[in-house]
Amino acid sequence: MKKLHERVRNQIKVYVAKSNKGRKQLVLNKGDWFWLHLRKDIFPTKRKSKLSPRGDGPFQVSERINNNAYRLDLPKEYGVSNTFNITDLVPFAGVVDSDDDGSIDLRTNSL
Question: What pTM does this model have?
Answer without folding.
Answer: 0.65
